[in-house]
Amino acid sequence: MANIKIPNDWEVSENETTPESVFMDRRKFLKGTGTIALFSAISWAGCAPSANSGEPATPVPVSESEKAIYPAKLDDSYTVDGPITPEKISSRYNNFYEFSSDKEGPRYNAQVLKTRPWKLEIKGHVENPGVYDMDDLYKTMPMEERIYRLRCVEAWSMMVPWTGFPLKALIDKVKPKSSATHVAFTTFYRPFSATGQLAFWYPWAYTEGLRVEEAMNKLTFMAVGIYGHPLPKQHGAPIRLVVPWKYGYKSAKSIEIIEFLDYQPPTFWTTAQPLEYAFEGNVNPGVPHPRWSQGREKMIGTGRERLTQIHNGYGRHVAHLY
Fold it and tell me: Taking a C-beta distance cutoff of 8 angstroms, is the pair 85, 301 a contact?
């Protein structure tokens, strides 16, 4: 009897996957037809769906200063080959253990998270510690759009257009002291909203970390938007880290604290499962996970696989760090 493959609900044929050129044309159209004016005319920017989404983005309340950053100018300096993952796929295929241990759960359960107002605290070994309201960052940071590969340690990948700013721009503002060697990122802790945090066997709140030179790298990005609109909550609203040459667990979501330290910080997965998740977290096809190979990756939204690239294809930007 012939094998019959029943596709997963996140798999679409390759001809349904949005090519980068189509996404670029969409951005030009939006800019030419006054998208900023449209965002200013509505009170829920998240109601404006991406043209390739197939379903509306979950509404997210936004401020006037946030509306003004869309569409952000595309920085194509770091783009790598590959089709952009349709938003209808990426919006419902998320790891966010605070809200669910499966992929579908976060797009429903994360909607209880209150993301306005939201403040980001910078502290530790810096000359200029402080607390920033998100509106401060929307107004003062150099916002742009970047299309990055996202590679999960679970051996799947996506290609995602993020809106945000280089982390280096914020680091330059707070001026780390010479004693700072690492940067720790800590997310929220609200166990009666994010019920996944009631799982006492995990070391909540979620924490991640980078060496200072990694944090200062031009690729390291703080995302506040995706697909040309503010981040939906399942993607880590209102601000998340994106480190495209590392596995996705390094890209902490819904960050509240950035702390500069003089030691390597303990992090969520290296504490929970130290034999399986390294602090470095670099994408490396030659180093298997203890329970599966990292040599190939499933391209979410295409039903296809490809060979994994060292540093996720960004080696020319980051290989000198290692």
Answer: yes
Residue in 159, 272, 322 with CA at minimum distance from that of residue 226: 159
What domains does the chain contain, in order, with CATH numbers? 14-321 (3.90.420.10)
- State the pLDDT at residue 46: 29
pLDDT band of residue 18 (cuts 50, 70, 90) is low
- pTM as predicted: 0.85
Distance of CA 31 to the CA centre of its chain: 24
Alpha-carbon distance of 93 to 235, in angstroms, equals 10
Question: Ramachandran region of residue 88, left (φ > 0), alpha (ψ -120 to 50) or beta?
Answer: alpha
> Any idea what DSSP says for residue 1?
-
Torsional sign, CA 209, 210, 212, 215: negative
Average model confidence (pLDDT) across the chain: 86
Q: 97's torsion region: left (phi>0), alpha (psi -120 to 50) or beta?
A: alpha
> What are the structure tokens assigned to 104, written together?
């579908």
Sheet hosting strand 119-124, strand order edge to edge: 130-133, 119-124, 255-261, 182-187, 207-211
- Tell me which residue has tokens 């759009």: 145
pLDDT band at 82 (very low <50, low <70, confident <90, very high): confident
Return the exposure string of 118-149: e unless at least 16 CB atoms fall within 10 Å of the residue's CB, then b: bebebebbbeeeeebebbebbeebebbbbbbb
- Cis bond leading into 238, ω under 30°? yes
Q: What whole-number percentage of the chain has pLDDT above 90?
A: 78
In a 13 Å sphere around the CA of 260, the CA atoms on its Cβ side amount to 25
Place of tokens 């596995």: 247
Is residue 58 pLDDT above 80, yes or no? Answer: no
